[in-house]
Amino acid sequence: MRKIKNIDWQNIEYQKAWNKQEEIFCAQIEKKKNRVATENTLIFCEHPHVYTIGKSGNEGNMLVNDGSVPVLHTNRGGDITYHGQGQIVGYPIFDLENLEVGLKEFIFKIEEAIVEVLKTYSIYGERLQGATGVWLDADSVVKSRKICAIGVRSSRFVTMHGFALNVNTDLSYFNRINPCGFTNRGVTSMQKELGRVIDQEIVKQQLFEAIKRNFL
Q1: Three-state DSSP class for 215?
Q2: pLDDT tens, 48-59?
Q3: Could you tell me the CATH number of the domain that includes residue 144?
Q4: DSSP state, 25?
Q5: Which residues span the domain enclosing 12?
Q6: Total of domains in the chain
Q7: Rounded distance between C-alpha atoms, residue 195 and residue 215, angstroms
Q8: pLDDT tens digits, residue range 194-216?
Q9: Mind listing the pLDDT tens digit for each residue in 141-176?
Q10: Which residues pair with 158 in a beta bridge?
Q11: In this structure, what is the dihedral angle of CA atoms 181, 135, 51, 210, given to the nearest 10 degrees?
């Protein structure tokens, strides 16, 4: 029977979360090698200030590096992004064969779940052609702004890393980078769009339900 379990690591340093992800990820790959049933785990957490650069990232997109915020190179896809308080980070460690989806469809379904949750707040997320993540006013270079970044790693159809949804995030930290490598598009949050602080625990519950709906 296919199912997804949910774990909340709360506030955790990025490197520690990465190490814990790797343990779960490698355990699932070992299970697949040994033809043992795998598990699908959706992890939520929040990270202290950190910039991460994906394996295809360009260090030139780090515009200001005064040492006040750690910068880590990671093995996910994508370029540079910021993690910090007020952001919900989701790490789906999923066996795509178990869920009967390919990698492109996996990313599409994660995006779709986030779009569905945002819509309940009257925030209308969209996809931007040629880019992952969820955007607002995607067709307008002047108005377009990213509300959720996505960067994943996959091996033997098992995924790790995932998405970062700006809920009550301090967006000023994005001014130090070209977010995801873009120089002409903005970044936003649910708080900025709605003009009020959002209950992140409720958003986590909504995300979990939406992801289950899209995958099960």
Answers
A1: helix
A2: 999 999 998 998
A3: 3.30.930.10
A4: H
A5: 5-215
A6: 1
A7: 32
A8: 999 999 999 999 999 999 999 99
A9: 899 999 999 999 999 999 999 999 999 999 999 999
A10: 95, 155
A11: -140
